[in-house]
Every structure is written in structure tokens, then in C-alpha cells.
Design brief:
single chain, mainly alpha, Arc Repressor Mutant, subunit A
């Protein structure tokens, strides 16, 4: 997905520090598009750019959600390696 919205999402996710997470809704709000959490999820689903730490984006309520590079268990392992309690 190549668009201004997608570029904004990827840049916002790049800004999430190691050891922290943000929800899809928080990412949407950070780019000025509150209510666009599902669209953020679509961008993350289609992202294979290794400079975008999409494993740091989680569902509201503390659930991990999916991860397009190995599923939720891989996402959990990456977050644990960064010191995130999951």
C-alpha cells in the first residue's frame, strides 16, 4: 500500500521506542486520523519493510494481534526480547 496515509503510519511506527508498544488506535491518533485503527492494521499487515517495527503495534485491551512475519508467537518473542511484558 503506497499512499500518504500508509507512509505516515510507517513513520509513526518507526518512532515507537524499543521496549514500548502502541495500539493501532494510538498510531491512528498520532497521525491525526483517530478512528482509523483498522486502516492502520491494514498497513501493518501489508508491511514487509524491516525498518518498520510493526511488532510494536498491538490491539487495544492488551492483546497482541497478528504479525505478518511469523504470527503472534513471533510477535510475542520479539516484544519479550525488547523487555515488554506480554
Amino acid at each position: 500500500m503506497k499512499s500518504h496515509f500508509a507512509d505516515s503510519v510507517r513513520e509513526a511506527v518507526r518512532q515507537i521506542p524499543k521496549g514500548e508498544t502502541r495500539t493501532y488506535g494510538e498510531v491512528a491518533a498520532a497521525i491525526g486520523r483517530p478512528g482509523a485503527a483498522r486502516a492502520v492494521g491494514t498497513v501493518m499487515r501489508d508491511n514487509y519493510d524491516p525498518t518498520v517495527p510493526c511488532h510494536r503495534v498491538v490491539l487495544a485491551g492488551g492483546k497482541l494481534g497478528q504479525y505478518n512475519r511469523g504470527g503472534p508467537e513471533k510477535k510475542r518473542a520479539l516484544l519479550r526480547a525488547e523487555g515488554v511484558a506480554v
